[in-house]
Every structure is written in structure tokens, then in C-alpha cells.
Amino acid sequence: MSSQDLSITAKLINGGVAGLVGVTCVFPIDLAKTRLQNQHGTAMYKGMIDCLVKTARAEGFLGMYRGAAVNLTLVTPEKAIKLAANDFLRQLLMEDGRQRDLKMEMLAGCGAGMCQVVVTCPMEMLKIQLQDAGRSAGHPQGPTSGPPSARPYSTSSASTHKRPSATLIAWELLRTQGLAGLYKGLGATLLRDIPFSIIYFPLFANLNHLGIDELTGKASFAHSFLSGCAAGSVAAAAVTPLDVLKTRIQTLKKGLGEDVYTGIADCARKLWTQEGPSAFMKGAGCRALVIAPLFGIAQGVYFIGIGERVLKALE
């Protein structure tokens, strides 16, 4: 195996390990974010803590991890693609991969964001249905939110007692809508992930550069972790309005009085007129609390070089 192959394999391992550890730590907060973004007003949850407390009481501790299985399964390729693509593009666009060039860093981030949606969109689609199931179960159900082919899974009496699963939802979407069903909200996902990556990667690279040791040529774990947290929280807050739109569009089961959206523009218009501009920042605090440690852990693992250590041990 060539050194280039080893490098790519190590990056994939680093991204996968970082994703698994990060998601396990912050998933309940991500669940709260999804439910807060989907609710109209403050009828059910007054905030993140209230949402988590009510979820734990109604659904138990494991209820806070609804949708975690699909996320843990797909976050490995998602994070691996995102981190490896950015690193590959940085080396391709810049002479030595280290020379700082903001335009090239932003372009590399843009490419990474575009690459990851292949996995991110279906992962988010399935995760959101499972995360929001507890909220929608306690919310009066409205009229059918679309034609039968648009329903996420059967709502017949035989299936109402069956707890939804990622496999069931994925099968129903594929059966009724084909592959396009799993990629509903692809445009909104791209609109969120590309700006996020354009902001995150250059900001992280510049923050992390401040802590690079001249002898080792690398930043310490603590500095990489804090740089990832800072860059992640800034990027997450900046794209929260786009994340709200994506969440609303991808949620298939609507409660009574909740709108159905025909696209990004329609969703933005209805959100603005019915709930006001503050609705675009729903779940911003939760999102920052999720993304900051998630990317802090990711960059910490990446710069420690767990993948390289694993490959060395297997030689």
C-alpha cells in the first residue's frame, strides 16, 4: 500500500472515529434542536432543557437517542468524506497544503460540503423522522401532508402501534418515491452545508495555525479541540436559518395546523409571515452546543492521528 493510500485510509479512520464519539456525546441535544425547530410557537417545549426533561419523562432515557442508530451508522462515512475531501482539496489547491490562502481554503470547504451531502441528506432525512416522532405523537395530527406517495410510512391502523424505524421509513420512501424520497430537501441541505464548510474550515485552519508547535509542526490536542469548537459554533450559528428551513422541509409527518412546504422559498415565506424572523433562529443554541464539541472532537482526533496509529499497529 502506497503512502498516499495509507494517508487516505488514515483520514477515513480519523473521520469515522471522530463522528462516532462526537455523535454519542451530543445526540440528545441534537434531538432537542430538531423538536424545537419543528414546533410552532412554544406550545410543547419552552427551550432545550424543557424539551430534554419532557422527552426523558415521556419516552425514557433511550427516547433521547431516537434516530441515533442511523446517525451512528452513517456519520462515519459522512465525517470521513467531509474531512478527507477538505484535506485533499486543500493539498490540491494550495502548493503544500499548509500555505494559507483564504480563497482557496473557502473553495476547498465548498467542495467538502458538496461531497458530504451524498450521505448527509438521506441520513438527516431518516434521523429527523425518528427524532420528531415523540413530538408528533403528542401533537394532534393534521390532515394528510401530501399524496399517499409522500407519506413517510404507512399510517394504517395496523402500523400505528408499530414504532417507526429507519429501515421501515427508508423502505417506504424507496417503494413509493424511489431514491428521490431519501433525498428530499437536497437543495436545502446543500444550502446549509456548503456555507457551513466555507465558514468552518478556513476559520478552523487559521485558529489552529496560531497554536502550531514549530518543532512538531502540529498543534496540541487542546488547541485543535478548542479551535474546532470555536469554528464549529460560529459556523453553526451562521447557518441556523438554513438548518431550520431544511428541518421543516424534511419533516414528513405534520401536526394539526402545521404547514406543508413546496420548496425552500415557500418555507421561508411562510416561516417569516406566520412566526416572524425569530423563528429562523430556532434551536440556534442547541445547534451550537451540538456542533462545537462534535467538530472539536473531530479535529482533535484528526490531529492526534488515531488513524495513523491504528494502521501502524496493524502493520
Short description:
With 315 residues, this protein is mainly α. It contains twelve helices and no strands. Helix 1 (3-38) packs across helix 2 (48-59), helix 3 packs antiparallel against helix 4 (102-137) and helix 8 runs antiparallel to helix 11.
Which descriptors apply to this entry?
single chain, globular, 315 residues, mainly alpha
What does this structure look like?
The relative contact order is 0.15. Helices cover 70% and strands 0% of the residues. The model is unreliable at 143-161 (pLDDT under 50). The chain has helices at residues 3-38, 48-59, 68-93, 102-137, 166-177, 179-182, 186-209, 221-238, 240-250, 264-275, 284-304, 306-314. It is mostly helical. It is built from twelve helices and no strands.
Radius of gyration: 20 Å
- Which whole number gives the mean pLDDT? 84
| Count of beta strands | 0
What share of residues is helical?
A: over 70%
Q: Briefly note the structural class of the backbone.
A: mainly alpha
Q: Low-confidence parts, pLDDT < 50 over ≥5 residues?
A: 143-161
Distance between the termini: 11 Å
Shape: globular
Strand content: under 5%
The number of helices is 12
Largest sheet: none
The secondary-structure element order is HHHHHHHHHHHH
